[in-house]
Amino acid sequence: MFFCKKLSQNNKKKILLMLLIIITIIILIYMFFIMKNKKNYKLIISHQITGQIYYQRNVKEGDILSFGWVHSFEHVDWNEYYRIENNQFVLFTIAVGGFGAGIPAEMDCTYRYENGLIYMENIKGSVFREFNWINSQKQLKFITIEDKVLLTGKDMPEHGRINLSIK
Hints:
This protein is of the alpha+beta class and 167 residues long. It has two helices and twelve strands, in the order H-H-E-E-E-E-E-E-E-E-E-E-E-E.
């Protein structure tokens, strides 16, 4: 208090302004480093041949991409979950309605059963730069980011050659 009484009103305003500027700079530097560590990408779903873009949006490091399929032969639900890391898709969970043709049954992962699906979790070493497939409007149920549906199979041409990538 004694210190404040000796300062003029003008000096008090200058000190307060300097403190506000310093705090603002510290906050901006902190935000810059947080944003720098959370890399941003553009997810693009397009036709492999024509390049027609069906969907694009910004995504960030750590976002979860999922595909929901109906297995073409076994006719059971098949869901895959990927984390976006270093401009790639890292598979960490598969959930299926059962085992059969083409469904991995002996993976080095943990298993659990919930709501009619077998979850294969903690999958390691399955990294993808992009996905290419021939679309089935009937078999592709959804593609999501952070549980928000982006597209379904019906949003793209039947038997269209589709690419999903991040740039």
